[in-house]
Amino acid sequence: MDIVFIVISILTILSSIMVIRSSKLVHSALYLAGTLIGTAGLFLLLQAEFLAWVQVLVYVGAVVTLILFTIMLTRKGEEE
Amino acid sequence: MFANTYELIVFILNFIGIYNPINDFFKMLGIEYVLRIIIVLVEIAVLFVFILLTVMFLTWMERKVVAMVQARYGPMVTGPRGLLQPVMDGVKLIGKEDIIPAKADRWIFTLAPFLIFIPALLVFIPLPFGESLIISDLNVGLLYIIAISAISPIAILMAGWASNNKYSLMGAVRAVAQDISYTIPLALSAIAVVLYTGSLSTVDIVTAQSGTWFGFIPKWFIFLQPLGFILFLIASIAEMGRIPFDFQESESELVAGFFTEYSGMKFAMFFLAEYAHLFSVSAIVVTLFLGGWSVPFLSFIPAALVPLVSLGVFLVKTYAIIFFAMWLRDTVPRMRIDQLLKIGWKIMIPLALINLLVTAFILTAGRF
Question: What domains are there in chain A, each with its CATH number?
């Protein structure tokens, strides 16, 4: 259990650092999805299944998708 | 009756009489968790092989149904009645060159086909294939299914954006717009079913549908929720992105939508995910509205045969829904994107809300 916790925590922290480190907006949004999935994994480790899947549904499924959607619709001119 | 396939496997091993010797052997070595891991891995392998075989069969079936509707034969050369055609397709796709466009985002481009396959597989975990044939009976099963299917738009957007192709991007944007607008009526009509059962567990939903009214009408939720069933079916066909709602890959406008730039094995991954999705969505429709693996005559069957018979019943029902989706694809023309969004937001969501409201009202009124 401890090993799983450490691995998930490291992945979550790394991807949340990458959210602010990466230069492309789309990459940031994808790392954000990774961070949120990692958080859901931590909830699963705490036996909070409902919270974990709601986290995936609301944050990964809706928030990140909408962020990505918006970035793609507005990215003209800023690319390369 | 077992809670999941793990217990079923343990029971069968016990029945043959090899569970305890193996368990003792691993206990002697001090690693008794190895046996658990092996059993779980066997479960995963069986499920994976089942999904791959199903997908191969579905590609063949799709061609045959199209051929039947158009009064042709379809694939006939490879194997009996063309049954080995999917194998040939697979060999051809593996042999193709794997092209990555020069201006594509290499990492995301490579990752997207695999990411789209993961939710398509994960959805199978809480699906009850038959009595005691379920990988894991999560007590938030339905929420899990909806949450996992909500991940796939991200993979679609990744594929569309990373290809650096305007058709891919358009396809991805359309696919996600469609997905977002049709997940809402999908979830709302599923919630109406949950109101009846009072549980999100798929096993509870199926058990609530066993038995009959007046001795001959099976207690399936399709009879209690006819509107919910129609909404759920339409929304799930739209979510799968099949004709008449296949805007993500409408050939006449967008070449092939978000996977225009993909070739070889990566293209095959999209194809696999699409058909795995078709099967899982039909299985969910069956579980929620058509009684899952339960049929009225199941109580007359000897207990040892019940898992097998219920698996058969479940597959028959699922293939009926799949056949309906294929039949629809061959007979109905594609809609326009504005019509699609209009139906989604102005008709389906209000209807789903009314359905939910009426269901909740009836259930509350019945309680007094």
Answer: 2-74 (1.20.120.1200)
